[in-house]
Specification:
Layout (H helix, E strand, L loop, with lengths): L15 H9 L11 H23 L1
Length: about 60
């Protein structure tokens, strides 16, 4: 004999009040992180590489 598992998940579309509560309280997506630190880091590395290459070429 197979005993079905209990379903603890309540389907919010089952009734209108639960669905409205579900859609009204839906979690919002977090804002995307800023790419400014990445851009500044890449620019700093590029400047250092250009300086090292220039120093080696002129030295």
């Amino acid at each position: 004999m197979v005993v079905p598992m209990s379903d603890n998940h309540v389907d919010p579309s089952g009734n209108t009040e639960a669905f409205r509560a579900f859609t009204h309280n839906a979690p919002e997506e977090p804002a995307a992180p800023s790419k400014t630190p990445l851009i500044i880091g890449v620019a700093a590395v590029a400047i250092v590489l250009i300086a090292v290459i220039a120093w080696l070429a002129l030295g």
